[in-house]
Amino acid sequence: MTQHGDQAGQAGRSRRAEGTDEVVFPVEYGEPGRWAVVHVHGPLDYHTASVLDATVARLWDFLAGGHLVLDLSPMTFCDSSGLSRIITVFHQCRERGVNLLLAAPPPSLRRILALTGLDRVLQIRDSLHQVLTEVDDPPADGDPDRSGSPG
Amino acid sequence: MSAQCGTTRMLAGLLAASHLAALEQVPALVGEHAAHAGLGEVLIYVADLQQQVLRLLTGHGKDAGEDAGGEPAELRIDTTLAGRGFQETRVLVRAASPGRAAHWWVPILDGTERMGMLRVNAPADAGEAQVEDMRALASLVALLMVSKRSHSDSYARLTRTRPMHVAAEMQWTLMPPLTFANTGMVISAAMEPAYEVGGDAFDYAIAGDVAHLGIFDAMGHDVSAGLTASLALAACRNNRRQGVDLATNTEKIEETLIGEFGRSTRYVTAILADLDTTTGVLTWVNRGHHPPVVIRGGRWTTSLACPPAHPMGLALGLPVTLCREQLQPGDRVLLYTDGITEARSAQGREFGLNRFVDFIIRHTADGLPVPETLRRLIHSVLDYHDGRLQDDATVLLTEWHGTAHHQLTMT
């Protein structure tokens, strides 16, 4: 298990690279081929959705079929562009055999995910800690928390 | 010449003359032929897009509203007698000083869609036959305006109080009239911000005993959102007219969206529903949208539950579930977009679902016609948000009468 407390402390503001206006979503890495966490800080909207794209695009080789975790606890806002980008990442993961997990989406996003039926497709966990426990020690027979078959 | 003959001459003469007339000629033709039925001066006032004012149609100038000739060019709907007649869909008369004609205000209705008010000069004690003439004239004026306005920029200018955005220009050309009624039901809609609406759309259509209903909310509020919503609406109608069922229709709309915009790039949430107006059975599908609310017996009963499939365009392959509800006579079904409930006050408080449903219950309990209730609702939502909405807000209300035939007509 790696440290992630320092980034989590940045909740509420976009992280910007030193000396620039560029928004950066910090990444922390597990062992190669196991997992990586993208900390989505601040708003995920039309302006920052491309940052998520670019960040995720750099991880495919490293992940090589492991788990991609989007840590949404420091996210302050998610508009329709942000939501569509999360689904784009979901499709990309599926095509690459990567397992996407969403950690701690704020209540407003959770409501939207339930309303739109997306919580029946996406794997959502209450906390990053829960996700990291899971990906470090994967259950033998798949995903125990995955909700039942869509009805 | 008998009164009946005068009525016939007025209506037939106006009809014959209308074939070679544009909207601009309608006021003069109406004045000329109204005289055949013994009616005095006739003025046509049309409501603006947001139904806040009535504007005089003179036929002159670029907006066909110049040269009012001393008459009021604009009347506020909330504060004038003409406006009250419009709100309540009633004929009202303002008595004049002795020896002068009174002003009769008569609603101009296309079906039950309120287009404006006709002002007719006639004696304050005009008999029933003459009032019937006024109503007949107002009905014909409505039909003439509907047939002329689709090719009239003047009419578009006259009914706008400020410039319109491109997306809204596109959306409004696709929307059906705001109100429809027959003996079995009333359908009424409202959509704001009228001049900037982007991603919202509503639809309804009648086919035999079935009323097809739909509400759409495309992501974003820009021109792309307008294009997405327009494409979804056009695809929906196209599929429906080929007899495609509700669930398959949403799947085909999704195919169309993905074909045009790519996977997960643009998406639309929607409710599509069919109401069997003979049995009151409502069937519907939910594509990631707020569930319908049913008001029964004058109180909020419930949001109708139905497992949502993903919004159209996200290509997630969730099964689309067809749900079914038996309506009771008098039930009102509300389809709405989140702009209605999530409009925020300056203090950041949401308008909210409770306030929305309470508003509808309270105003219809006061005996207001459904279209007027929605007009007041949408103005209330706008006021709540200091007149400027950040998001599109749309409501489509359907009232099923069942066997009780309450007609929405003039009293």
Question: In words, what does this structure look like?
Answer:
The complex is a heterodimer of chains A (151) and B (411). By secondary structure, chain A is α/β, with parallel strands linked by helices. Chain A has a single domain (23-136), classed as STAS domain (Transcription Regulator spoIIAA). Chain A is 34% helix and 19% strand. Chain A has six helices and seven strands. In chain A, α2 runs parallel beside α4 (80-96). The model of chain A is unreliable at 1-14 and 142-151 (pLDDT under 50). Chain B has 411 residues and is α+β, with helices and mostly antiparallel strands. Chain B folds into two domains: 3-158, Beta-Lactamase (2-Layer Sandwich); 166-400, Phosphatase 2c, domain 1 (4-Layer Sandwich). Helices cover 33% and strands 26% of the residues of chain B. Chain B contains eleven helices and 17 strands. A six-stranded antiparallel β-sheet of chain B has the order 3-2-1-6-5-4, with helices on both faces. In chain B, strands 7-8-17-16-13-14 form a six-stranded antiparallel β-sheet. In chain B, β9 and β10 form a beta hairpin. Mean pLDDT of chain B is 92; it is low at 404-411. The A-B interface holds A 46, 80-81, 83-84, 87-88, 90-91, 115-118, 120-121, 150-151 and B 219-220, 263-267, 269, 286, 288-290, 307-311, 314-316, 318-319, 321.
